[in-house]
Amino acid sequence: MTATATYSVEAYNTARESENKIHDDAVAQKFGFRGGLVPGVDVYAYMTQPLVGRWGLDWLTHGTASCRFLKPVYDGNEAVVTATPRSNDSDVFDLQVDSAGTLCATGWASLAADHLPRPALTEIAAQPLPADRPDASADTLAAGLVLGTYEVDLTAEVNTAYRADVRDQTPIYAEQRLAHPGFVLRMANWALTQNVVLGPWIHVGSTVQNYALIHEGRRVSGRAKVTDNYEKKGHRFVDLDVIVAADDEVASLIRHTAIYQPRGLGD
């Protein structure tokens, strides 16, 4: 990319009816937000559009991206993604998302294939999901804990519905029957939510390293390990390493951060 690229999309709250009530207008307002938050994984999906537009399969196969969510994006508002090449490296550029006059997210992306070394699938052992999910806590999300493995079949219906939700009409996904990178990142959310019961919670940011394409018809799994659990400014945070695999092939490694207990929850 030799010039700044922009991409605009009408944001859509895909999680209004989800278990996470931070996406519900009434609950989100209790935490000081204007309304329900558009999920961070979907804001990331918006951020990837210029990457795929510029680098195509190269980025989906071995590119990397990092995102940090600063302020909410709200349903129905325009989200404007700006991708600016770094002056000293044409294969790295900085990302930001603005909505309603507010800087909502920042990040960067690169084609570098060695940002996060490719793990072996066995580095995070497959574990069964809990029959009864415990409440999220410092004990149930303790550092070093390997979580249960969440799996889903990437059917054509699932894949098409996700692209429609994030309003991405980039032809490559339909033409090659590929999983959208936003769907891949959503696997990290599921790795968390399918293992513990959470109240309202907030996805803070992620770093994603791609290693392989994921095609329709494959069984996609998310193996997760808790790397840290800590308090900061009254919030309880959890950091996860998540290996996303297609069948037995490692497709992505995700470093994922969430506030699993926001300040004031239960007050």
3D architecture notes:
There is one protein chain. The protein is of the alpha+beta class and 267 residues long. Helix content is 21%, strand content 35%. It has six helices and ten strands; from the N terminus they run βαααβββββαααββββ. The chain has helices spanning 25-30, 40-55, 57-62, 156-165, 171-176, 181-193, and strands spanning 5-10, 64-69, 78-86, 89-99, 102-110, 150-153, 202-210, 219-232, 235-246, 249-261. α2 packs antiparallel against α6. The radius of gyration is 18 Å and the shape is globular.
Helix content: 10-25%
Strand order of the largest sheet: 1-3-4-5-2-7-10-9-8-6
Number of strands: 10
| Biggest β-sheet description | 10 strands, antiparallel
Low-confidence parts: none
Whole-number count of domains: 1
The top level CATH class name: Alpha Beta
User: Oligomeric state of the chains?
Assistant: single chain
